[in-house]
Design a protein that fits this description.
This is Polymerase/histidinol phosphatase N-terminal domain-containing protein. It holds the Pfam family PHP. The chain has 287 residues and is of the alpha/beta class. Strands 1, 2, 3, 4, 5, 6, 7 and 8 form an eight-stranded mixed beta sheet that branches.
């Protein structure tokens, strides 16, 4: 049984449409896939409509949050939210605010690039992006303009946090985000907390602090985690009785990791589904 609980479509920063994402998941031999676009549920309906009969779809989202870094200062943290009620008012309003933050940020970064002489059109980027625009959309524009050769090059250079073009955004405080997901009947899982290649790391002590707020799991098995970090996170999840998830963090051609490269154990998936009250999985119930 193969279960991948973190995948992105073109409704955020992936390159596959939601329909193509579920088709690709079935072609990859997955039994379960989660659609987890950034700060949006826009792909849910299309993914559900196109879901192959053999595939179970978990509807989710990856939320932009501000956690506590190991140095005590704010650090970006991503929170995976599964099987929540998308109509829950507070959570829906916060997702809308986050998407507006994304638009403002990308427009500001693109404008800085254009002012510096790069052939970047802010209006075109925003018009061509899905409902949740992000730096990968800028990366594609930079490739088209001949500034960089790849998405990875863009993130190492003009899109890096140390770049003159970089603009921050105001993310949701992590504890507030966990509480919103729980209040919406969803299951909150901290995404890739040891992704060292992305920069500063969150303080793992905060994970224990979030359990009373409703945190249910940790994404342990991930392309950006070393074997040593997997062992640390696995032990922490066991200590706190949290669900352990694994996933590819698939982005289509924006990243090289294929669907199913990392997976979730069936018993952990069952715990996650049992904890949700906001919405149901679609497709075969795995037993």
């Amino acid at each position: 049984m193969r279960i991948d609980l973190h995948a992105h479509s073109s409704e955020s920063d992936g390159t596959d449409s939601p329909a193509r994402l579920v088709a690709a998941a079935a072609e990859a031999g997955l039994d379960v896939v989660a659609i987890t676009d950034h700060d949006t549920t826009a792909g849910w309906e299309a993914a559900a409509a196109a879901r192959p009969d053999s595939l179970t779809l978990v509807r989710g989202m990856e939320m932009s949050c501000a956690g506590r870094g190991e140095d005590g200062f704010d650090v970006p943290v991503h929170l995976l939210a599964y099987l929540f009620d998308p109509a829950a008012p507070a959570f829906a309003a916060e997702r809308e605010r986050l998407r507006a933050e994304r638009v403002d940020r990308i427009r500001a970064m693109a404008t800085r690039m254009r002012s510096a002489g790069l052939a970047i059109d802010p209006d075109r980027i925003l018009a061509e992006a899905g409902p949740s625009v992000g730096r990968p959309h800028l990366a594609r524009a930079l490739i088209d303009a001949g500034v960089v050769d790849s998405v990875a090059d863009a993130f190492r250079g003009p899109l890096s946090t140390s770049s003159e073009f970089y603009v921050d955004k105001i993310d949701t405080p992590l504890a507030d985000a966990v509480a919103m997901v729980a209040d919406a009947g969803g299951v909150a899982v901290v995404a890739h907390p040891r992704a060292r290649s992305r920069g500063r790391l969150m303080d793992l002590a905060q994970i224990a602090e979030l359990v009373p707020d409703g945190l249910r799991g940790i994404e342990v098995h991930h392309p950006d985690h070393s074997a040593a970090d997997v062992a640390v996170l696995d032990a922490l999840a066991d200590e706190l009785d949290l669900v352990v998830t694994g996933s590819s963090d698939y982005h289509g051609s924006n990243k090289t990791i294929p669907l199913g490269a990392f997976t979730t154990a069936p018993e952990q998936y069952a715990r996650l589904v049992d904890a949700a009250t906001g919405t149901d999985v679609l497709g075969p119930v795995l037993g």
